[in-house]
From TrEMBL, chains A, B, C:
Keywords: Cell membrane, Membrane, Transmembrane, Transmembrane helix. It comes from uncultured Quadrisphaera sp. The chain crosses the membrane at residues 6-28, 35-56, 117-136, 148-168, 174-194. The lineage of its organism: Bacteria, Bacillati, Actinomycetota, Actinomycetes, Kineosporiales. It comes from the Bacteria. InterPro entries: Gly_transporter. This is Uncharacterized UPF0126 inner membrane protein. Its main location: membrane. It is found in: Cell membrane.
Length: 216, 216, 216
């Protein structure tokens, strides 16, 4: 249905913008980069997840690369952050909200794209989650941080839940736009609640002895 | 031959489990992660090499993604590590053995998959080695360590030798299962001997002057 | 035209050698690696950009992997650096020049390959720049540095300009070899001038308050 395809692209571009904004704001705070570095980190954050998604789905060349709108929107998001960011009173909250919005949208667009290409529900949920966490993971690695997907307990989990909700609603006959928006909102709320209340999974028991890093 | 294909999958799943276990145990020691972070690092370690392999072989979508067994086994290996790891007296040895086992198995399954897809012997050996070192490299980058493939002298070399043995035995008419198991055992023994005796290649002569990092 | 294809391969192998040399020299200085580690980092630097390029262009399996000349030239560049590097008086300048040469050549070969596969001018310019900066970015991430594409103002920009010049000259009817060499020289000169005079883009205004890294 053309309308569904349009919605998917609109959602995907929204997520691209949000991730570019959040990634570039992270660059502003994490390290002293000129405007090109800030925009580049925003673009890596915004386009990384969709590129990994399209490799996994064998949907090459990736839409993030051949469809100029993704590049333009990612660049715009980075520029907005570079010029508006320094005027914000604090950056932590805008970064968290932009990142959560990108996470929520990419979880459902990744899952929906997989379903549309004929992949089963399990693969759709997994690719949704990978799409959602991929860009932020590349961003964190690029600036030398341990990725949020490892350290931030409820990061992949809200993405998995949002993607599952979208896939399940679609299987129950709910129209794609409704299923996608519902899944994205669910993921967004879960992620923001998790950040607000510092939710995380159980920690493994402490390892018995502090060990030096082996040379090898 | 169906039996050969079955053996290849069994070996591949064994390597997946070993790498998931080793990767998740590394997470336990390297940094304080909750159980989701530990399992995620295990899965990155277990599935990274095979995903890179399938990109290089143009065997997309990657088996690590479309074949649910890889995801399930990787997740199981990570969970076992998260719950059993803290009860181990020391983690260094289990990590090294699990990592060496994954290295050995992926070197030969990567090479065998390449041969089966019609690639030549040189490409098969190289893709075997890349499959073997790929997951551990992603793991080390994710937690901010210089990858073992750079710092640990005999890491890629045993993988190259094991893959070469498998490809050579196959070319001499030895049945695939025998060639694969022989190559994997050779790689495993070489890797463990290298770790035990701290073998490494020659070091380049010292660079004449200590230089500050340039700004650019 | 066969001659054009030959030139493209010659240029591409030149860039591969330059990046392997520069990457391996970086390894000599950045951290104490044995000869296998040094050569491996050289090969990652030399082959990373072309591999990413071929994923984006859906030209899989990547030429860097199936064409043995790339692997051989990358390995040779790494070995030359490992054995000649310690005899150099200083490493900073050779690293910068080798890296700038690889950047210049890959920007135009990436763009030319994209054009040859039927991609439009915008995509050709972008893939040229990604090819050019890709290998060095992987190198920096592997040794734990923030990538030059983020910190070094005029790094992606000369690549974008060189690729644009090549694509524009090609569109104006200039023969491929001339367009490629002209674009590469332009990129090389711009990059060296940028390093020499420490050019960079404008820095965003300072962020108002120093903020602690959030836990999440």
């Amino acid at each position: 249905m053309p309308t569904d395809a349009v919605l998917l692209v609109v959602l995907d571009l929204t997520g691209t913008f949000a991730f570019a904004l959040g990634g570039a704001l992270t660059a502003l705070r994490a390290t002293r980069l000129d405007v090109f570095g800030v925009v580049t980190l925003g673009m890596i954050t915004a386009l990384g997840g969709g590129t990994i998604r399209d490799v996994l789905l064998d949907a090459l060349p990736p839409a993030t690369f051949v469809d100029g709108r993704y590049l333009a929107v990612a660049c715009a998001g980075g520029l907005v952050a570079a010029y508006a960011g320094p005027h914000l009173h604090r950056l932590a909250t805008p970064i968290l909200v932009a990142d959560a919005a990108g996470l929520a949208v990419f979880a459902v667009t990744g899952a929906t794209k997989a379903t549309g290409l004929g992949f089963g529900p399990a693969q759709a949920v997994i690719v949704g989650a990978i799409t959602a966490v991929g860009g932020g993971t590349l961003r964190d690695i690029a600036i030398g941080r341990v990725p949020a997907v490892l350290t931030s307990g409820f990061y992949a989990i809200p993405a998995l839940i949002g993607a599952t909700a979208t896939v399940a609603l679609g299987a129950l006959g709910v129209a794609t736009p409704t299923a996608a928006v519902a899944g994205a909102l669910l993921c967004l709320v879960l992620r923001l609640v998790a950040v607000r209340y510092d939710l995380h999974g159980p920690f493994p028991l402490a390892v018995p002895e502090p060990e030096p890093e082996p040379r090898d």
